Amino acid sequence: MTNKPKMPGAIYCSVIVLTITGGFNYHHKTIMPSQNTKNSTGELAGVWANDRIIDIHAHIGSFKGYDLSTPTLLDNIHRYGIRLALISNIDGAELPGTTLNLDEIEANQATVEHVRQYPNQLRGLVWTRPEDGAPEKVEPFLRDSISTGPDRRVFVGMKFHPDMNNFPADDPRVDGYLLLCEKYGIPAVFHSGSDDAANAAPQKIYAAARRHPTVPIILYHMGFLGPHGSAIATVKAALTKKDAQLYLETSQADPAEVLRAIKKLGSARVLFGTDATYYGKQHYQQYEAMLSRLKNDLSAEDFAKVVRKNAEKLFNLR
After folding, report:
1. CATH code for the domain of 146
2. How many Å separate Cα 119 from the centre of its chain?
3. Global model pTM greater than 0.85
């Protein structure tokens, strides 16, 4: 999500409810939600349900001019049979008047409540604010569980938005958060732009990743709205030098460029995500052409890696 020309939509404000939970070992895998319900013909309900897609890029919260409401997200998930969506709270973005500009505790507590309310559809990504937050503020959220018992994590990764939270991706203030990713065995996702992006250029994300070479780091958008060459080349450099674990994500990307990335980097380095619900009530319809192209042009195994298996592995899902 980025501050681009606005589309009509509702503004959704999360109700924050505080809940106390215990901790557990997060290096274990998370139990995945049950399969989608079947229709009258015995097939899984939803346009893409049989592909068991994991969308690694979705939001809750409010962003002026866009419909990011929870009902809109859940309706899209149901109609398209999305197996699971990974959500972060856009109200953690420091954009007064456009978002609610919540601090780390308020923003992530809202995500906790969403995941607990919809455990069969959602998992969380911790929204970070290195500009005014602190790793010790978000660490308790990494111990939150959906319910009592093991392997029920609320949060499966950590989100960084250098543009909306006004910090360079390679800022030393990022390091404490990435140390938490190391500690809890979770990946980080970064909004990425083009080479001329002041804060979110792929090379700046790569610089932070080199300081934490055991942490998988995913470049959302593979360079927002293109061109995508720099993001692809950056991940290729990390692969060649073996000095960081970088991956790409597909939201708002040209399908041909996604296929080019897969050809250059291998299917294990690209994950499906959509920035839901950037396109509002018909959000997933905007990705039908991409999914069709990927399914037609990739082997069944490579397609499965991109739309679910890579996410299962990196986010410790099953």
Report:
1. 3.20.20.140
2. 16
3. yes
